[in-house]
Write the structure tokens for this entry.
Amino acid sequence: MDVILAVIAFCSLILIAEGNSCCQDGWLPYEDSCYYFYDEKRLNWNQALTSCKNKDAYLATIETNNENRFLMHFARKLFRPDTDYRNTTIFWLGASDADIEGIWKWVATDQQLNFQDWDVQNNQPTNLHDNHEDCLALSGAFDFKWHDGECDLDTGYALCEKQGALGSTGAGISAIG
Ligand SMILES: [Ca+2]
Ligand SMILES: [Ca+2]
């Protein structure tokens, strides 16, 4: 009981100090969410979906410019530029246009994308590979900009997201109030 109270107090202090969520070890806090760059195993998109579910999370959704910048920044930080490793690395995100070509939806919410940041300089999304590029990814070869990728290739890592422990409802503030 004391430990739980201490954790709540600690998280609340963080919330007040930084406005961030309280996240488990290894998860990065940003606004209301916690993120995990699961870069241990390359997966196809469906496997990435499952691996996030197994962490009680979902394949990340990017809904604002700030969230986009935050996640790109960390992807760039994790992988040094101009290395083969980075150039072959992508992080899967939780959007697909597999149902209707060109209509991209976040699978976590079944909502169409309200914010998009495709790598338009490279004509993304291209829907190459016999019109089978139906899954959204941050592409390391292109500075982790938005590319559509072939869902079945196990080339990507999962970028998972979940709500912070205290969520966005102000529960953290009232918990100490
Ligand atoms: Ca999100
Ligand atoms: Ca497509």
Notes: The first helix runs from residue 2 to 18.
